[in-house]
Design a protein that fits this description.
The chain is mostly helical and about 230 residues long. The chain has two domains: about 60 residues, Arc Repressor Mutant, subunit A (Orthogonal Bundle), CATH 1.10.10.10; about 140 residues, Four Helix Bundle (Hemerythrin (Met), subunit A). The protein is built from ten helices and three strands, in the order αβααββααααααα. The protein has a three-stranded antiparallel sheet with strand order 1-3-2. β2 and β3 form a beta hairpin. Keywords: DNA-binding, Transcription, Transcription regulation. This is GntR family transcriptional regulator. GO terms for molecular function: DNA binding; DNA-binding transcription factor activity.
Length: about 230
């Protein structure tokens, strides 16, 4: 079941609806293959159809929905190939980022990463998967921020929507948060030691998790995945 969200005046309505729907799709509150109705979404958020239509277009650009003329807008099933391609691009970007961070990250930046790890442990202890995923993303964003290149994380974020759905499913079924936290700790330790090679190895191991997890997840949720 999708959770309640409130539209505010702090940012454009279409961006808020995009973010809320993206969250619902990523966490599979809205199942792959589901029909998204402009009318229903407009009623849900008490807005006109125009910002909803714009949000749908942005979701389509992220690869999360398919807009079919005369038929409607459908949540895309998960594509194993898109997940693999996204992971490949993400690893290329984040490997370069983490190597620089090992040399350039300030004590303050390392402190922020350590604090983020504490929050991850707290979210895991509370079995709060949604908060954990947000903190996971924040951990990686902080590494990019530590070298003054948040654009690197924005680039990753733009291509990882399909990956995020698999990430959410793996938390309870294949890759529990504690395992991911241990991987994050190894990245942090390598950065603290200024060891670029160890940092690269740690991020590689961390992102390889997606390759090993997608097959069992697809087998358990076959109707949500495109055919291999």
């Amino acid at each position: 079941m999708s959770i309640a969200y409130n539209i505010t005046a702090s940012e454009p309505v279409n961006q808020q609806i995009y973010r809320f729907l993206r969250q619902d799709i990523v966490t599979c509150a809205i199942h792959p293959g589901s029909l998204l109705s402009e009318k229903d979404v407009s009623a849900r958020f008490n807005v006109s159809r125009q910002p909803v239509r714009e949000a749908f277009i942005k979701l389509a650009e992220a690869g999360l929905v398919q807009i079919l003329p005369q038929r409607g807008t459908f949540v895309r099933k998960i594509s194993a190939k898109q997940v693999a391609d996204g992971r490949f691009i993400r690893e290329a970007v984040e490997t370069a980022v983490v190597r620089r961070a090992a040399l350039e990250a300030s004590p303050q930046a390392l402190s922020e990463l350590a604090h983020n790890l504490e929050l991850q442990r707290l979210a895991a202890s509370r079995h709060d998967s949604q908060s954990f995923l947000l903190l996971d993303d924040e951990f990686h964003r902080l590494i990019a921020q530590s070298i003054g290149c948040e654009l690197a994380w924005e680039t990753v974020e733009n291509i990882k929507a399909t990956m995020d759905r698999v990430r959410f499913l793996t938390l309870s079924e294949v890759s529990p948060p504690q395992s991911l936290i241990q991987q994050h700790e190894k990245i942090y330790q390598a950065l603290s030691l200024r060891d670029a090679n160890a940092a690269e190895s740690a991020i590689h191991t961390h992102l390889q998790e997606m390759i090993f997890s997608i097959t069992p997840i697809a087998e358990r949720n076959a109707s949500w995945f495109e055919e291999f």
